[in-house]
Design a protein that fits this description.
Keywords: Leucine-rich repeat, Repeat. This protein has helices at about 10-35, 40-55, 60-65, 75-80, 230-235, 335-355, 385-395; strands at about 65, 70, 100-105, 125-130, 150, 170-175, 195, 220, 240-245, 265, 285-290, 310-315, 370-375. By secondary structure, it is an alpha/beta fold. Among the domains are: about 20-75, no CATH class; about 100-320, Alpha-Beta Horseshoe (Leucine-rich repeat, LRR (right-handed beta-alpha superhelix)). The radius of gyration is 26 Å and the shape is globular.
Length: about 400
């Protein structure tokens, strides 16, 4: 008996293979489209852009507007062309330029402000970032036209009382510095609209005198050591955005509903176990972000599908290491981690605003302190095993 001859139609194999290839290409196309729309990809792009700007000494104010980052290449080229020349004094012909009312300074070689700055009292904006400057001089009171003080990521440990003389001041950003207190005189800046004191890590309270700031619509005091919502904040009657995330809050005041104009409330990374029913009176609230690891009770009406509220609950995981996703960049300090966390959340919220419903929060890059999971679609499910376990622990 001879060998058995196997007859196989190669055209069948080719057809099968071509079908698989087509399916694989279709999958690749869909995956590429998904990644293009993914908030995580946008976050990575923005983080790389910020890193590039830092290396080139470009001030944050040039590429970060209203808390969001413009990553266009054209913008980067424009910023590089207009970047501040690293000199020990201000250019004499500065008054002839279109930026005659704007002062910009960036780079770790700066340890103090140039002496000639005190002569430029016509300036309306200061944008100073990523320097080693520790002191804002008292002669700042001479800048009566000042509208914007943008001073993030420096080494500032103290704000002078004279800052209260800036009656036209609209925006104050002293985020990611080394402040332990805010001068009560800031309450005299009656036209202030935006206040950002985030990322100072040791800041524990705001002076009651800030209650006079009735025009404020934006307050960010995240990544500090607040154990309660400051009384002065509760008296800012026009407040629309409040970020008090990453602090030591264990509860919210029952009179939180004093903030009748509040639209966005960020509370994640605290130790809240419940949300007060008075929050139901915040009729304009459209975004609420909390950490779900400790929450065991919240008003059911907050999750009513008929409300415009986008309710986002995050479950935080411990930091397992301090490396980014690419594995070769180590976060330099706690401030770097906090800053990265905020960039992640800003990108997520920007993406969330473009959607009609709450969407899953993308996992941040490895090593950030926001390895999170989200409760979606504004629903609190008491029958969920995780919630049952928490209820049992509380009881």
């Amino acid at each position: 008996m001879g060998h058995k001859v196997v007859v196989f139609d190669i055209s069948v194999v080719r057809a099968l293979w071509e079908t698989r290839v087509k399916k694989h290409k279709a999958w690749q196309k869909k995956e590429a489209e998904r990644l293009e729309k993914s908030a995580l990809e946008k976050i990575k792009e923005e983080w790389n852009f910020v890193a590039e700007c830092r290396r080139k000494g470009i001030p944050q104010a040039a590429y970060c507007k209203n808390g969001f980052i413009d990553t266009s290449v054209r913008l980067l080229d424009k910023i590089e062309r207009n970047a501040l020349t690293r000199q020990s004094s201000l250019p004499k012909d500065r008054g002839k330029r279109s930026s005659a009312f704007v002062f910009e300074l960036s780079g770790e070689h700066w340890t103090e402000l140039p002496d000639s700055l005190k002569e430029q009292t016509h300036l309306k904006e200061w944008h100073i970032s990523n320097t080693l400057i520790q002191i804002i001089p008292t002669y700042i009171e001479l800048f009566q036209a000042m509208r914007i003080l943008d001073l993030p990521k420096n080494q500032i440990s103290h704000l002078p009382a004279e800052i209260g003389c800036l009656k036209n001041l609209k925006e104050l950003n002293v985020s990611f510095n080394h402040l332990k207190s805010i001068p009560p005189e800031l309450g005299d800046c009656e036209n202030l609209d935006r206040l950002d004191c985030s990322g100072n890590l040791e800041l524990m309270e705001l002076p009651f005198e800030l209650s006079n700031l009735k025009q404020v619509t934006f307050v960010d005091i995240s990544a500090n050591k607040f154990s309660s919502v400051p009384i002065c904040v509760l008296r800012m009657s026009n407040l629309q955005w409040l970020d008090i995330s990453n602090n030591n809050l264990i509860d919210l005041p029952q009179d939180i509903d004093r903030l009748e104009e509040l639209q966005s409330f960020l509370l994640y990374k605290n130790k809240l176990t419940y949300l007060p029913y008075s929050m139901l009176n915040l009729k304009k609230l459209t975004l609420l972000v909390v950490s779900g690891d400790h929450l065991v009770e919240l008003p059911t009406a907050l999750c009513d599908s008929s409300t415009p509220l986008k309710f986002v609950s995050l479950r935080d995981n411990p930091i397992d290491n301090a490396r980014c996703e690419d594995g070769d960049e180590i976060m330099e300090s706690e401030r770097d981690r906090q800053h990265f966390d905020k960039e992640v959340m800003k990108a997520y919220i920007e993406d969330l605003k473009e959607r009609e419903t709450v969407c899953p929060l993308p996992k941040s890059q490895r090593g950030s302190s926001m390895n999170t999971h989200e409760e979606t679609d504004c629903k609190w499910e008491p029958d969920d095993p995780v919630n049952q376990r928490r209820d049992k622990e509380v009881s």
